[in-house]
């Protein structure tokens, strides 16, 4: 089967709203490489949008899922429970930031984890309001969209959204928003829009994913914690993209020395199987009444088996440290190219969560150059993802298991795409 034929069939059979980046179709994949139906090989710096920190088809994950396939694939945890769900919850409770006793509930997608974190926060506080940040991305469900701080393409034509959601600017020095600006805007919301005593939660990404890999400054995160403590608001860290080893720690919040009340996670949690979770302070997590949380597929046994293997692999292969080393190598390479690429406005990141932002000579965002780099790289067989409110950032999401030779090959293609 040829790619062109599949593109034609896709256009006829599936809606354009499910936007597809590549015009080639996957046949198989292994670790950091994908082969298409015509046999062309690609180096995968997209990793299924940050899902494959442990790479495609890691043998330990495949073994764990196969073993589970031979036992049972679905019982609905809320009907007939299984021990692996508890085991994974226990492990996450031990590893998630914060010293207080914790509990974890499993779901399927990142958006579902976010929805449930808000439900739990509302149930625990008895308050309706939620504050999120511009540039943030929290999913494609109704509450996910309401919280998301990026209109195109996520919110166009889909409103009205759930009420009582407010946005403050996320600090970003490059775009002229300081921690102080952001915190003042938050205080302004409390004056102009909602009494802080009616706010259930503040939700934020420690490093904005879709928003451009903007890293939250330490003073900002600590100030958010203080604001929450002052007003009895719960702090939710959305670690769907930052989680599971990407930033040089298992959770990005470990960089800040403050704990959120609730953490959402998904993506690399189960290495390609659909699984998400909300972990939080035990008494907060216990606020919803029995039956209020869950879902038919929530905590699917195949996905849970895969997640348990992910935790083992991260530890036994020391992947979190390796990710930080690879991220450093990438940042050094990008910095070295800077003199030859005037479009580079900033190279930033934490651990392996690295991005490069492009701007034009007049300082305005350069989405055209971003697309050009992405297209040139793709022609040479390197898959890159863009992000940023203006689509002018390239983010790097290579598996942390990538072989040195493949990483170097990818970096060479990237250098060529940037400088040609
Ligand atoms: C920070 C964050 N939250 C939530 C989501 C939504 O996750 P999902 O696409 O699995 O629903 C994403 C997805 O990119 C994300 O990056």
From TrEMBL:
Q: What class of enzyme is it?
A: transferase
Question: Coiled-coil stretches, from where to where?
Answer: none
Please indicate which superkingdom the organism of origin belongs to: Bacteria
Which cofactors does the annotated protein need, by name?
pyridoxal 5'-phosphate
Q: Which GO terms describe its molecular function?
A: 4-aminobutyrate:2-oxoglutarate transaminase activity; identical protein binding; pyridoxal phosphate binding
Q: Which GO terms describe its biological process?
A: gamma-aminobutyric acid metabolic process
Keyword list (alphabetical) reads: Aminotransferase, Pyridoxal phosphate, Transferase
What's the EC number here? 2.6.1.19
Keyword Manganese on entry: no
Would you identify the family this protein belongs to, as annotated? Belongs to the class-III pyridoxal-phosphate-dependent aminotransferase family.
Q: What is this protein called?
A: 4-aminobutyrate aminotransferase, PLP-dependent
From the UniProt record, report the name of the gene that encodes this protein.
puuE
């Amino acid at each position: 089967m040829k790619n062109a034929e599949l593109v034609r069939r896709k256009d006829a059979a599936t809606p354009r709203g499910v936007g597809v980046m590549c015009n080639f179709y996957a046949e198989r994949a292994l670790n950091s490489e994908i082969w298409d139906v015509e046999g062309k090989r690609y180096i995968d710096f997209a990793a299924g949008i940050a899902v494959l920190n442990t790479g495609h088809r890691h043998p330990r994950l495949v073994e764990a899922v196969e073993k589970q396939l031979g036992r049972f694939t679905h019982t609905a945890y809320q009907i007939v429970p299984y021990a692996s769900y508890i085991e994974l919850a226990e492990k996450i409770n031990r590893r998630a930031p914060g010293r207080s006793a914790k509990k974890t509930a499993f779901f399927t997608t990142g958006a579902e984890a976010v929805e449930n974190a808000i439900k739990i926060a509302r149930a625990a506080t008895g308050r309706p309001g939620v504050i999120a940040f511009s540039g943030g991305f929290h999913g494609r469900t109704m509450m996910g969209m309401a919280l998301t701080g990026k209109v195109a393409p996520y919110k166009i034509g889909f409103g009205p959204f759930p009420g009582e959601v407010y946005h403050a600017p996320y600090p970003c020095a490059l775009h002229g928003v300081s921690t102080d600006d952001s915190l003042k805007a938050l205080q302004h919301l409390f004056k102009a829009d909602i009494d802080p005593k009616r706010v259930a939660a503040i939700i934020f990404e420690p490093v904005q994913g879709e928003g451009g890999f903007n890293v939250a400054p330490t003073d900002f995160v600590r100030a958010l914690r203080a604001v929450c403590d002052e007003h009895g608001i719960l702090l939710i860290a959305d670690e769907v993209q930052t989680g599971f080893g990407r930033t040089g720690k298992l959770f990005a919040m470990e960089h800040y020395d403050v704990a959120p009340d609730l953490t959402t996670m998904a993506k690399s949690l189960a290495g390609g199987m659909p699984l998400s979770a909300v972990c939080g302070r035990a008494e907060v997590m216990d606020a919803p009444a029995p039956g209020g949380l869950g879902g038919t597929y929530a905590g699917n046994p195949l996905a849970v088996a895969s997640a348990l293997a992910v935790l083992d692999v991260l530890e036994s292969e020391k992947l979190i440290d390796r990710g930080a080393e690879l991220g450093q190598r990438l940042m050094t390479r990008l910095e070295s190219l800077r003199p030859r690429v005037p479009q580079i406005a900033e190279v930033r990141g934490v651990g392996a969560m690295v991005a490069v932002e492009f701007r034009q000579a007049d300082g305005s965002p350069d989405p055209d150059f971003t697309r050009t780099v992405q297209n040139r790289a793709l022609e040479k067989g390197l898959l890159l993802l863009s992000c940023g409110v203006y689509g002018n950032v390239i983010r790097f999401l290579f598996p942390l298991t990538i072989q040195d030779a493949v990483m170097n090959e990818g970096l060479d293609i990237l250098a060529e795409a940037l400088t040609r």
